[in-house]
Amino acid sequence: MRVKKIAIVSPSLGLLGEPFVKHEKEIGFRRLRSYGIEVVAAANACKGIEFLKRHPEARAQDLLDAFRDPSVDMILCAIGGDDTYRLLPHLFGHDELLHAARNSQKIFLGFSDATVNHFMLHKAGIHTFYGQSFLSDVCELEDEMLPYSRKYFEELLATGTIQEIRPSDVWYGERTAFDESQIGVKRVRHPNRGFELLQGNAVFSGKILGGCIETIYDMFDNTRHDDSPALCRQYDIFPSVDDWRGKILLLESSEECAKPEIYQKMLQTLKAAGIFEVANGVLAGKPMNEVHYEEYKRLLISEINKPDLPIVYNLNVGHATPRCIVPLNVEATVDAARQVIRFAWGRE
């Protein structure tokens, strides 16, 4: 499968419609079109932060329309955010998403708050791709997309799959400014450490499922949004313990760089959900700017408290640049000794 048309959606934050990202949007559209790809923004995707905050039904409609449009090959999230759970009544109230996405072969790519969208599509029986977004990756302000990120993005565009993931040789300090003065300014590069096996067997297999740990935590905790846990329970969006059986849990942490005591609480919540009792392993992403790098490692070991459960740390995905792309719901084999994750397409 070669991607010929991309629809950009804003299922969470409406940042794409704000004037201050106009230069980034132009860079991103130009890069995508340089591949010979037709690019469209969904009808409501560029209506701005306030409009989309007030109208989750408009965000939901864009997602449904993108799945229903037979000319669209790839649905690309503009950016993350924190309230895509509010789409649930508009996507599952009458099984709208299940009908629109049934048997879909479209690529869905996003990360951060899009974790909820990935769980929605998992409920519909569709494999998706986690780890990059339009503004965060395609619109990179350097002269080109970051090489490691571009490699995986181009593989997905050309084949519709990701065959294997290896560590990046470098990681980048996150930008603190994104205005036009930053166009062409290079990020600060640091040597990377590769995949770190924290415990358990170096080789383990299973379908990967998961995403941003803060977003997952919000499905259980109402600190950020009062109604988030209730809506997620109402629409049964978090996978059951049986669904987690034999899976590999993917966890990566956001730009909030949660204090260790908060990270600990998030892990305790996942443990109480029973995931670690039935999972085949854990893949944990690099924290942004390596903040709390060693503390998170220790907490993964102590809070999961299952010495035989494999835990591999420092995956380049999600909020720490550069970013690979992780296929979800596809059989994967992690080999930490050989520093590779391989995917077995067609064996689901």
If you compute it from the alpha carbons, what radius of gyration comes out, rounded to the nearest whole angstrom?
A: 19 Å
Through-space gap between termini: 18 Å
Succession of helices and strands: EHEHHEHHEHEHHEEEEEHHHEHHEHEEEE
Average pLDDT number = 97
Sheet with the most strands: spatial strand order = 6-16-15-10-11-12-13-9
Beta-strand percentage? 15-25%
| Structure summary, number of beta strands | 16
What gross morphology would you assign? globular
Helix content: 25-40%
| Major sheet details | 8 strands, mixed
Structural class: alpha/beta
Count of individual helical segments:
14
Would you mind describing this structure in some detail?
The protein contains 14 helices and 16 strands. It is globular, with a radius of gyration of 19 Å. Helix 12 runs parallel beside helix 14. The two termini are 18 Å apart. The protein is an alpha/beta fold. The strands form three sheets. It has an eight-stranded mixed beta sheet. The protein has a six-stranded mixed beta sheet with strand order 2-1-3-4-5-14, sandwiched between helices. A two-stranded antiparallel ribbon has the order 7-8. It has helices spanning 22-34, 49-54, 56-68, 88-92, 96-101, 115-123, 134-138, 147-159, 213-218, 228-234, 241-244, 260-272, 275-278, 293-304, and strands at 5-9, 38-41, 74-77, 107-110, 129-130, 164-165, 170-172, 189-191, 196-199, 203-212, 248-252, 281-285, 311-315, 326-327, 331-335, 340-343. The longest helix has 13 residues, at 22-34.
